[in-house]
């Protein structure tokens, strides 16, 4: 009897244990299912790597016809979409404001690139010189929607307290606040007006001394790799890799000094022809398009002395080396993503901010005495040389002009979209994509919605249009052909509608008073001004420009530079206080008395 009772007890315990085990297993399965669902949900949102190249010529990169070695960028293009018609502004900060806000730069705060605001524009809505309170930045929205947000590189959208990257949505950041500087650890400013924002931050801590082996492109890539590899969870990330290369000064490490030696000894027209031939093979331009002879503002190659040719060739050798270094650094970031198992689920967007820079260092009011710009020293840390106009025109092949202008070479930029979500490959030549389209596209891809208010401020509407559907549907139209759009920076203006464009150029490249009319489909080089032949079309587009300028709050330049009127100390207060109001009113009165 005792034995039977004992066996019954054992049976009962076993039965209960079995039930308990089943329940535990069901609970565990539910937990695992939930975890898998959560992880799947997180992983269903792609990582995003946005790469911005500074002052990049349209035809520099190999996917766009360039002779410069850029194999990693080529790999992105081979596995993605090349957008043939992408437009930004002709200057760095306004373009980057487009990328980070999804709205026209005149709305977001960079109506004029600081410190070039006119006296009448100073601290007016849209001309604050930083991303204003009408903006919720791309990283802010993505971070609110579960993304990690990382930045490494150039900001140029505000150095003031509350306007720096670590305060504008980036969880981790190594940021350069200004427009340009030495690419080495000596970090000299481009000029006296640049000093105040020639500053680096490591997250929220100002960097007092850069590492001795600092070189901008290498270090920016190192920091992005650090952020990616240190991430321990499965949440998606947004990475903003914003190079300062190949912005002047042209600098390369010693081992890169002669990597392109002799490559440019045949001069401007030879490289133009090489690029034209390549672009025709790639289907980027019509096969019968003639070479662009340039503006005529600069000496031809055969008009240069032997010494001038050596100096000019050296400029381009250094510029090319800077781009190849940047390409290798992009390759290192891609390799890190591959090792982390994240590359397959990452969308990569590479874009230029504007055309190549035609200016020499005198543009920045730089004291050149400390620099050694001899031929043998060009490219070293104590040199300050730039690409200048003749080569800048070549880099824009086949288009006209360069940075600062609204010629196609100033505002039409390379755009490559590759990786997760991009199923259409090849050249997209139909749709026009704007810099403002980046943010709404990425928000749609991430399933993220931007609120109407943020930090108690009412947000302005984004002016960009998502091109997400274009990435998987070749026949998709991003915006209506008759939907015009405008571009303006420092009174250089353009307005596009369909195949037509009007252009207004300030001296020395234009008269500063006449609008020109071009059919950019038939005449992409902008060589035939049709303003007199087609006055009705000119008036139609001028009406579009006026409507655009009123809509975005464009303020015409008047009263001289605010920096000159106010002086550095008052200007950089970034406040329209009683002192600054009085100084601006005085300048305006003096201008009126002068009869201008």
From TrEMBL:
<dbReference type="InterPro" id="IPR017850">
    <property type="entry name" value="Alkaline_phosphatase_core_sf"/>
</dbReference>
<dbReference type="InterPro" id="IPR050738">
    <property type="entry name" value="Sulfatase"/>
</dbReference>
<feature type="domain" description="Sulfatase N-terminal">
    <location>
        <begin position="46"/>
        <end position="448"/>
    </location>
</feature>
<dbReference type="InterPro" id="IPR000917">
    <property type="entry name" value="Sulfatase_N"/>
</dbReference>
<dbReference type="InterPro" id="IPR024607">
    <property type="entry name" value="Sulfatase_CS"/>
</dbReference>
<protein>
    <submittedName>
        <fullName>Arylsulfatase</fullName>
    </submittedName>
</protein>
<keyword id="KW-0378">Hydrolase</keyword>
<comment type="similarity">
    <text>Belongs to the sulfatase family.</text>
</comment>
<keyword id="KW-0479">Metal-binding</keyword>
<keyword id="KW-0106">Calcium</keyword>
<dbReference type="Pfam" id="PF00884">
    <property type="entry name" value="Sulfatase"/>
</dbReference>
């Amino acid at each position: 009897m005792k034995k039977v009772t004992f066996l019954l007890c054992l049976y009962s315990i076993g039965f209960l244990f079995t039930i308990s085990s089943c329940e535990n297993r069901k609970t565990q399965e539910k937990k695992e299912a939930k975890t898998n669902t959560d992880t799947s949900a997180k992983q269903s949102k792609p990582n995003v790597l946005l790469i911005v190249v500074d002052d990049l010529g349209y035809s520099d990169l190999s996917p766009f016809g360039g002779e410069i070695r850029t194999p990693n960028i080529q790999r992105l293009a081979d596995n993605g979409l090349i957008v043939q018609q992408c437009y930004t502004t002709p200057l760095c900060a306004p373009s980057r404001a487009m990328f980070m806000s999804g709205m026209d730069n005149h709305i977001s705060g960079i109506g004029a690139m600081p410190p070039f605001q006119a006296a009448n524009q100073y601290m007016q809505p849209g001309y604050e010189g930083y991303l204003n309170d009408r903006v919720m930045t791309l990283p802010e929205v993505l971070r609110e929607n579960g993304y990690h947000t990382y930045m490494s590189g150039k900001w140029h959208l505000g150095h003031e307290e509350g306007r720096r990257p670590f305060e504008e949505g980036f969880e981790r950041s190594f940021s350069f606040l200004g427009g340009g500087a030495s690419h080495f650890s000596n970090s000299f400013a481009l000029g006296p007006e640049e000093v105040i924002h020639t500053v680096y931050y490591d997250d929220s801590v100002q960097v007092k001394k850069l590492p001795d082996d600092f070189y901008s492109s290498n270090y920016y890539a190192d920091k992005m790799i650090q952020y990616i590899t240190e991430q321990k969870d499965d949440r998606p990330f947004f990475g903003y890799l914003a190079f300062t290369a190949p912005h002047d000064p042209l600098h390369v490490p010693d081992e890169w000094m002669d990597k392109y030696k002799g490559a440019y000894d045949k001069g401007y027209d030879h490289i133009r022809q090489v690029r034209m031939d390549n672009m025709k093979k790639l289907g980027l331009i019509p096969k019968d398009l003639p070479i662009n002879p340039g503006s005529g503002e600069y000496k031809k190659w055969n008009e240069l002395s032997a010494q001038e040719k050596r100096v000019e060739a050296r400029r381009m050798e250094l510029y090319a080396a800077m781009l190849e270094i940047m390409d290798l650094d992009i390759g290192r970031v891609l390799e890190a993503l591959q090792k982390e198992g994240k590359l397959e689920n990452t969308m990569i967007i590479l874009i230029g901010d504007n055309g190549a820079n035609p200016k020499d260092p005198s543009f920045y009011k730089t004291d050149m005495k400390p620099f050694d710009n001899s031929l043998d020293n060009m490219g070293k840390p104590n040199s300050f040389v730039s690409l200048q106009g003749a080569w800048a025109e070549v880099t824009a092949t086949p288009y006209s002009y360069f940075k600062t202008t609204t010629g196609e070479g100033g505002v039409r930029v390379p755009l490559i979209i590759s990786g997760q979500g991009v199923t259409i490959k090849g050249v997209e030549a139909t749709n026009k994509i704007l810099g403002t389209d980046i943010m709404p596209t990425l928000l749609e891809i991430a399933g993220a919605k931007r609120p109407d208010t943020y930090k108690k401020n009412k947000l302005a509407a984004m002016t960009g249009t998502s091109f997400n559907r274009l990435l998987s549907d070749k026949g998709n139209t991003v915006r209506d052909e008759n939907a015009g759009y405008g571009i303006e920076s420092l009174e250089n203006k353009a307005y596009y509608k369909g195949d037509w464009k009007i252009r207004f150029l300030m001296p020395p490249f234009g008269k500063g008073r006449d609008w020109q009319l071009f059919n950019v489909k038939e005449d992409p080089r902008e060589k035939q001004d049709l303003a007199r032949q087609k006055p009705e079309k000119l008036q139609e587009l001028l009406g579009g420009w006026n409507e655009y300028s009123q809509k975005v709050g464009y303020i015409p330049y008047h009263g001289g530079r605010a920096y000159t009127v106010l002086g550095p100390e008052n200007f950089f207060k970034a406040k329209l206080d009683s002192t600054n109001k009085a100084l601006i009113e005085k300048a305006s009165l003096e201008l009126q008395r002068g009869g201008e």
